[in-house]
Design brief:
The chain contains 16 helices and 19 strands. By secondary structure, the chain is α/β, with parallel strands linked by helices.
């Protein structure tokens, strides 16, 4: 019989490495990035051994260890603490009488595997003990989620009315499409967007579980979003879904109800519909809808309508997120170097260097624009500003955007009057930019780079910033 191991590590990379190592050596492996989820998982799995990281958010490995030792039903399960701590740091928590084991993370993973094999061979858990763990878990679930018979009858009658309503009534695709488009604001987090989407879909389908697997652009990994009604998903079920989609993260929208049944396997649902969405040969999303009642899926028109609208939604999300990422990358490569290229000065003589002026361009109403527009729309305005400046600059003149949303410009001018004229032209040009009725209001502080007969761009920026404080809408450019 395969031995079972639960591995807990908040690092997805470390967790996947350990899971792969143990699975290749014929272990039945369960993983969790959260110690609280892992604790619940123990009653579903009855493992032969537990391997846990020490330092984790919410609940650390030593706290989990103490919780296990204080719980009579599972206290005999051996635990290995696998941590970046050294043994002297950890020995305060490790007690020989509890049969605990410790291994540093920089040790070979094969050594961890060897240790787990030796421990489980030396201290095997008998089958009756493991069966008792599973029984305790089931009894706990039954006690916790028991529902009165009268409530079940009332809820079933209400549910049947809703189901009958939805079967008879076809969804208006045009109206639903309009509602979805109102949630296409992709500068919000996926969690916020999908929460709104689930709110829209649930009354139309009355599902028991809706899962969406997508690439999370914020976390740079696959994530699964669960919307749940009237049930609880066991850690085993959640782990299977993560494995299925090669995902690293679960976002759970749990809607509590009087009767919360624990679901462990897919076959506990009566019916399931699954869609895989592709765009330009790229998998952009996977959707699965589960129901305990087959009747909910009888209206094929509604299912097809929702499928069409979901495809439009995921396609729009994919295009928008990719476009936004590409624009940011291109924008940063082209305009957002974090320093001036001083090397270009080497080809100029001292006389020419005297003619260099540095200006700091500030968009004074940036916070107002930022609060009203999405990140993508802000990028459009920033790109327009950069484009106008670059098109105006002559050869060897420079511009870059710093992290304060200011543009630093270095130009040639034969004297202060010409410098002010050139910067005034730039300010007026930028003030004419508009997007969605928003226009940047630009002011510029300027300094000559030849300070005390010594070329110094850093000192020039300080002086230009002081000049910036003196600018106003009436006097857009100030030179100091």
């Amino acid at each position: 019989m395969m031995k079972k191991v639960i591995i807990i590590d908040d690092s997805a990379t470390s967790l996947n490495l350990l899971k792969t190592t143990f699975a290749k050596n014929s272990w039945e492996v369960y993983g969790a990035q959260n110690a609280k989820i892992a604790y619940e998982m123990i009653y579903d799995v009855a493992p032969d051994i537990i391997i846990t990281d020490a330092i984790m958010p919410v609940m650390g490995g030593f706290q989990l260890l103490k919780t296990i030792r204080d719980d009579d039903a599972i206290s005999k399960i051996p635990v290995i603490v696998y941590s970046i701590l050294n043994e002297s740091n950890a020995k305060f928590y490790i007690h020989e009488e509890l049969s605990e084991y410790f291994l540093r993370k920089d040790d070979n993973v094969d050594e961890l595997l060897k240790m787990a094999i030796e421990i489980t061979n030396k201290y095997p858990l008998d089958e009756d003990y493991k069966k008792n763990i599973l029984t305790v878990g089931l009894n706990f679930a039954k006690t916790l989620y028991k529902k009165e018979e009268e409530t079940q009858i009332i809820q079933k009658e209400a549910q049947e009315e809703i189901i009958e309503d939805n079967i008879q009534k076809n969804i208006d695709e045009e109206e639903l499409n309009k509602i979805f488009k109102e949630n296409y604001d992709f500068h919000y987090s996926d969690e916020k967007i999908f929460s709104e989407i689930f709110t829209i879909l649930y009354p139309l389908l009355e599902y028991d579980l809706f899962t969406i697997n997508v690439y999370s652009y914020e976390k740079k990994e696959q994530s699964v979003f669960f919307d749940i009604r009237d049930i609880i998903l066991s850690p085993i079920f959640q782990n299977k879904i993560l494995t299925k989609y090669n995902a690293q993260d679960i976002i759970l929208f749990k809607k509590y109800a009087p009767n919360l049944k624990m679901i462990i396997n897919e076959d506990e649902f009566f019916s399931k519909i699954e869609f895989n969405f592709e765009y330009k040969e790229v998998n952009i999303a996977n959707v699965a809808i589960y129901s305990k009642d087959k009747q909910k899926w009888q209206n094929e028109h509604n299912i097809e309508t929702i499928k069409n609208i979901l495809y439009k939604f995921f396609k729009a999300r994919y295009i928008n997120k990719n476009s936004l990422n590409n624009k940011k990358e291109t924008y940063q490569n082209r305009y957002s170097s974090n320093k001036l290229d001083i090397n270009f000065l080497n080809k100029f003589d001292e006389t020419q260097k005297e003619d260099l002026y540095l200006g700091i361009v500030e968009v004074v109403n940036f916070s107002e624009i930022e609060s009203s527009l999405s990140e993508e729309e802000l990028d459009i305005i920033n790109s327009k500003i950069s484009e106008k400046i670059i098109n105006y600059l002559e050869k060897d003149e420079q511009v870059y955007k710093n992290d304060k949303d200011e543009y630093i410009i270095v130009i040639f001018a034969k004297d202060e009057k010409q410098a002010k004229h050139k910067f005034m032209y730039i300010a007026n040009t930028l003030n004419q930019i508009s997007y969605e009725s928003y226009s940047p209001e630009v002011v510029i502080g300027v300094s000559n780079c030849n300070i005390s007969n010594s070329f110094n761009t850093y000192e020039a920026q300080k002086i230009a910033r002081n000049a910036l404080d003196l600018t106003s809408k009436q006097e857009k450019v100030v030179i100091k």
